[in-house]
């Protein structure tokens, strides 16, 4: 029989663990909710307001001219993005309902791989026309800079998916009875 001091410490420890679990679960739900909100905002903006991705020029008479930076190839990439955003929203809703470590990690790995596919397709299709920028140097440099940035994003996402996968495997190996 543990002494009263040890029993109190064990009970206090148990409460702290429960508090921590509740906070982290609440934090994950907040994260899932923020992700859902962000994905819906992106879905709406990039589907219905893409024409505002443009170079704006103020004319001498005060009017504003909007020159689109997107080519018609944007509409070849848009279904890929919309599909990924819808999958992400659905996955985050599912994770709010069912929140287990192994499930969460698998879903996050899948979503990250989908992100790599979306970014890789964006680089491949490259639906941008930077010729509307009035600076010749910027017109030459911007496509290169955007391509490099997108490749770095894709590689970063790929590394993130790999790290999550390794952590998941290590966690599962530690949990399996030997």
Automatic annotation (TrEMBL):
The chain crosses the membrane at residues 29-54, 74-97, 109-132, 144-166. Keywords: Membrane, Transmembrane, Transmembrane helix. The keyword Transmembrane applies. This is Uncharacterized protein.
